[in-house]
TrEMBL record:
Binds 1 zinc ion per subunit. This is Guanine deaminase. One of its GO terms (cellular component) is cytosol. PANTHER family: GUANINE DEAMINASE. Residues 74-444 form the Amidohydrolase-related domain.
């Protein structure tokens, strides 16, 4: 048992806990006790722990211990490292074109509607509620170029208790859709003086701004450099897209003829830091992966999107071998599913496709992908001091899973072991199995009625 001296215990749970650590992709604690303190942090966790002794040293005799059922377990909340909140409005449709055509035909016209705050409120409430129900305790969101709607997304995530990074999108180049572009000055001013400043002023405990150049083709080098400078001076998170599709990679070479690689463009503009996450990276070279590793920048693996837009297949084993931080992303709406469980399945499928093509390729295990969905995502977003697993001192961000939830999608025969329960949940489960969601020790699902 590891513990620290805390006296004010908010609640204690007893049962099976599954999570990942640096050493073990899957660690299972059976009949364990976990205590959450009044700040929502994990005060103690231990297997076969002496309840009597703990209750005395932590003084929680007054609060009831919640006992999990036989087919239940707690796992860390899932982390969506890349999701476009406005695109939730058309998720599950419009998957018949490659990336650049898809952006011009579907994405930009829809995103341009988000200057309308009523529309934004409707869609952003839906996406926050849906992802929370699906077990996404932390989401790293792209919004649109509109500052007020982007601030509204931060407010809605805060209101529902979701941990979030929120980015106002920056784009000052190549507008295929009239008015869905900013001037360079406007993009800088709105991002720096309004979006970041106002979001920080709200002092939402779980919501942070993230500097968000859409991707290199949407930005002039001058804007990229300004955003990099601002992120550096204020130690801000950064997100963008990189090397998603081959046509995009070729276009970037034309637009930035003086750069050595796609990665080099971001690197020269100070946009690769240990608080950076770049989506996709399907077509990065090994030299580019080394630059990620050296700068501490992370990748978001978005397998549903990579398949749905026929963009490419990320070689995850190679990324992990290069020791580049990696999480999973839904990339709604390029990826059609707003669930990280889907991302887990598509990541496993993609890895198996690579093994079919090359039997030497070492397929990812479900335990490894479970780690990507939780601790990996947390590390990729530089939030692992506070989230990602059940280490004492971290915030309690967790899902209470009932694999045999009545009316749910999974049938059990008898007494399946925790590892089997987790594997079945990852492959077959859905929100019916996620009976409770906690963020920073607060129960956020089921929703409390306002
Ligand atoms: N690259 C630039 N913008 C986007 C976007 O909205 N979705 C995806 N999948 N790729 C992008
Ligand atoms: Fe994306």
């Amino acid at each position: 048992t590891s513990q620290k001296s805390v006296t004010d215990i908010r609640f204690v749970c007893r049962g099976t806990f599954v999570h990942s650590t640096a050493e073990e992709a899957l660690q299972i604690l059976e009949d364990a006790l976990l205590g959450v303190d009044s700040k929502g942090k994990i005060a103690f966790i231990g297997e076969g722990t002496d309840l009597q002794r703990l209750s005395e040293s932590f003084g929680f005799s007054s609060c009831a211990v919640t006992q999990l059922g036989q087919h239940e377990f707690f796992m860390p909340g899932m982390i969506d490292t890349h999701i476009h909140a406005p695109q939730y409005s058309y998720t599950g449709t419009a998957l018949d074109m490659p990336l650049l055509q898809w952006l011009n035909t579907y994405t930009f016209p829809v995103e341009s509607r988000f200057q309308d705050l009523e529309f934004a409120k409707k869609v952003y409430t839906q996406v926050v509620k849906r992802t929370l129900r699906n077990g996404t305790t932390t989401a790293c969101y792209f919004a649109t170029i509109h500052t007020d709607a982007s601030l509204l997304l931060g407010q809605i995530a805060n209101d529902f208790g979701q941990r979030a990074l929120v980015g106002k999108v920056c784009m000052d180049r190549n507008d295929s859709v009239k008015h869905y572009k900013e001037s360079s000055e406007e993009s800088q001013e709105e991002t720096c003086r309004r979006f970041v400043k106002e979001l920080l002023n709200k002092k939402y405990p779980l919501v942070k701004p993230v500097v968000t150049p859409r991707f290199a083709p949407s930005c002039t080098e001058a804007l990229l450099a300004k955003l990099g400078e601002m992120a550096k001076n204020n130690k801000l998170h950064i997100q963008s897209h990189i090397s998603e599709n081959l046509e995009e990679v070729e276009w970037v070479k034309e637009l930035f003829p003086n750069s050595e690689s796609y990665t080099d463009i971001y690197h020269k503009c100070n946009l690769l830091t240990d608080k950076t996450i770049m989506a996709h990276g399907c077509h990065l070279s090994d030299e580019e992966l080394v630059l990620f590793r050296e700068t501490g920048a992370a990748l978001s693996h978005c397998p549903n999107s990579n398949i749905s837009l026929c963009s490419g297949v990320l070689n995850v084993r190679n990324v992990l071998n290069h020791k580049v931080k990696l999480g999973l992303g839904t990339d709604v709406a390029g990826g059609y599913s707003p669930s990280i469980l889907d991302a887990v399945r598509r990541a496993l499928d993609s890895s198996k496709v690579l093994t079919i093509q090359d039997p030497e390729y070492k397929t990812l295990s479900f335990e490894e992908v479970f780690r990507l969905a939780t601790l990996g995502g947390s590390q990729a977003l530089s939030l692992d001091e506070r989230t990602g697993n059940f280490q004492v001192g971290k915030d309690f961000d967790a899902l209470r899973v009932n694999v045999a939830a009545p009316g749910g999608p999974i049938d059990l025969i008898q007494n399946e072991k925790p590892q089997i329960l987790l594997e079945k949940f990852l492959n077959l489960g859905d929100d019916r199995n996620i009976v409770e969601v906690f963020v920073a020790g607060k129960k956020v699902v089921p929703f409390s009625e306002p």
